[in-house]
Amino acid sequence: MKHRVVITGLGVITAVGQTKEQFWDSIINGKSGVDYITSFDTSKFDVKIGAEVKDFDPGQFMDKKEIRRTDRFVHFAVAASKLALEDSGLVIDQQNAKDVGVVIGSGIGGIRTFEEQTKICLEKGPGRVSPFFIPMLIPDMGSGYISIITGAKGPNHTVVTACASASHSIGNSFRLIQNGYAKAMITGGAEAAISPLSYAGFTSAGALSTNNDNPKGASRPFDLNRDGFVMGEGSGILILEELEHALKRGAKIYAELVGFGETGDAYHMTAPHPEGSGAAEAMALAIADAGIKPAQVSYINAHGTSTPANDHLETLAIKTVFGEYAKSIPVSSTKSVTGHLLGAAGGIEAIICALAIRDGLIPPTINYQTPDPNCDLNYVPNNYQKAELEYVLSNSLGFGGHNACLAFRKYNG
After folding, report:
1. Residue 322: in which H helix or E strand, if any?
2. For residues 176 and 185, is the Cβ–Cβ distance under 8 A?
3. How far apart are CA 411 and CA 22, in angstroms?
4. Is residue 3 annotated as part of the catalytic site, yes or no?
5. Where are the domains of the chain?
6. pLDDT of residue 275
7. Is 163 known to be catalytic?
8. Residue 188: which H helix or E strand, with range?
9. Catalytic choice (168, 245, 340, 402)
């Protein structure tokens, strides 16, 4: 017998909010977090904009020694995890520690640390490189460190599947609880890749928007004039619990996680399959896993990166799965507000899905001005829509051809 899995806690650290309600207000009302980069000098860069987390104080969540020994992406993960645990009311102690696991994804990990320590090595010599360099760099330290500070001794690993990392982490956590390997999971993603080397690489690949004159309008998914994604940073963490475990302790329930689909394109390092077949199959698998029909889906939170290729091919994938019903489903990309958090994107977008179900509100795709003939669905342009949401999908697609789709349901007992 498979166990039912519910969401009982949410924690976010983003450019548009460091509490779930502040974050949700920005998402619903389309308050963009994109601005000019302040964390490094962009004078020699073609791209000067990003969705930075400003006024973030890791000292609220960690002591000074811990902060010095960990990368910024871990700071985000710790903060969001502590906020999610507080929101859930779940207390980890000696009695339940082995029943609580941690799976937190990161596409890149400690790239800021990598850059800083490389500079030290080249300029001052290898003997000056920090002894904490390796643990600060590796992406698994998000999951590892959360386990250390919370005492969670259950399943613990990290997923690295580029921009699908957080959704795969949530999907894996879902399976662990479903199959009885854990009672609760701390899961999601964290990323802090707004850095010179990261920007240089993505710019050389032609992936980033160069709309420096209009930062808040630069992330424009599905719009004809989109020219690339805008990088964001932060963390989105959820507390997943086995239903009976949550009910026994009187936990509030945001939504139920009912399906997970994952596929590989087997096509190209960075480009999605030209027919969107991998993304389509992931959605189809999540729908089948949830035991529903396509016409029961009320809303899709799209991967929607604002790149020419992704938005067209994700639209095609949705049409492949839903047929004529595709035109009836609200589809929006909240990356228009948050920027693209890479490996953490699926974490904050899963939180958005849970809050959308809770409040019956579909978040908008902001900056949508000029329709693209190849993107012809209902993208909830510029203003939120009210709707009773029963089933919701969240898509995440990553370099390497990684596709993940999560299916959520309104909890009805």
Report:
1. helix 308-322
2. yes
3. 24
4. no
5. 5-248, 260-409
6. 87
7. yes
8. strand 184-191
9. 340
CB 391 within 8 A of CB 243: no
Q: Which residues fall within 8 angstroms of residue 210, CB to CB, at 6 or more apart?
A: 46, 47, 227, 228
pLDDT at site 413: 84
- Nearest-angstrom CA–CA distance, 207 and 320: 26
Write down the catalytic residue from 303, 312, 402, 405.
303
Q: State yes or no: is 303 an active-site residue.
A: yes
DSSP state of 97: G
- What is the token pair recorded at 332? 């929006």
Give the torsion sign (CA, 317, 319, 321, 327): positive
User: Tokens 């898509």 label which residue?
Assistant: 395
Q: Cα separation of 284 and 404, whole Å?
A: 11
Confidence of residue 266 (pLDDT cuts 50, 70, 90): very high
pTM above 0.85, yes or no: yes
Residue 311 is which amino acid? D
**312 near 275, Cβ under 8 Å?**
no
Report the DSSP beta bridge partners of residue 372. 375
CB 314 within 8 A of CB 9: no
Are both 5-248 and 260-409 of the same fold? yes
The one-letter amino acid at 87:
D
Q: Hey, CA dihedral for 332, 400, 231, 207, is it positive or negative?
A: negative
Alpha-carbon distance values, 384 to 133, 326, 345, 363 (Å): 44, 19, 20, 5
Euclidean distance between CA atoms 389 and 361, whole angstroms:
8
Q: Which two tokens stand for residue 220?
A: 């424009």
Domain 260-409 has CATH 3.40.47.10: yes
Q: Is 283 helix (H, G, I), strand (E, B) or coil?
A: helix
Are the C-beta atoms of residues 189 and 341 closer than 8 Å to each other?
A: yes
The tens digit of pLDDT for each residue in 144-173 reads 999 999 999 999 999 999 999 999 999 999
Report the candidate in 292, 294, 296, 338 with the shortest Cα–Cα distance to residue 319. 294
Topology of the domain comprising 5-248: Peroxisomal Thiolase; Chain A, domain 1 (3.40.47)
pLDDT in tens, 337-396: 999 999 999 999 999 999 999 999 999 999 999 999 999 999 999 999 999 999 999 999
Query: How many C-beta atoms lie closer than 10 Å to residue 140's C-beta?
Result: 17
pLDDT of 271 > 90? The answer is no
Provide φ and ψ at 302, rounded to 5°. -75, 155
- CB neighbourhood size of 127 (10 A): 7
Whose tokens are 């957080």? That residue is 166
Q: What was the pLDDT predicted at 270?
A: 84
As separate numbers, helices (DSSP H) first and strands (DSSP E) second, the chain gives 13, 14
pLDDT at 232: 98
